[in-house]
Amino acid sequence: MRLTSRSSRSLDLARLEALALGASAIATAHLLLGLVREGREADDPLLAGVDPDRVRGLLPLRPPDGGSLPLSPGAAAALTVAARDAAGGRVDAAQLLAAVLTHPTSSAVEVLERLGTDPGHLWARARSGGAATPLLVRR
Question: Number of structural domains, the chain?
Fold first, then answer.
């Protein structure tokens, strides 16, 4: 699978977050967190309404063991979906985000719902290439 530099950076950040949280695998919530952090670095408005500290606060924290991390089945499936959607091209950050949000029971969807953000609306924004519609946050 070929990734754009932003998608690759998002995966690197997801791995670092999962390691710091002591996770046993990189889950879709870690991918979401990597995308949020990378989006802030790139000043991308797609995930501007999602606070990385609040996402981190919703994820389990265990003592880090420092080992390498595999992808969880959900995260691996999301990368497969993103690669398929890229149709042989490079997977960009919006495609990766849409793929992460594809499965309604993923940890990323659960985190967004707990934050009051509509994952379906965010998925639609990602699929449209991040069109400038406001992020829907439930109150």
Answer: 1
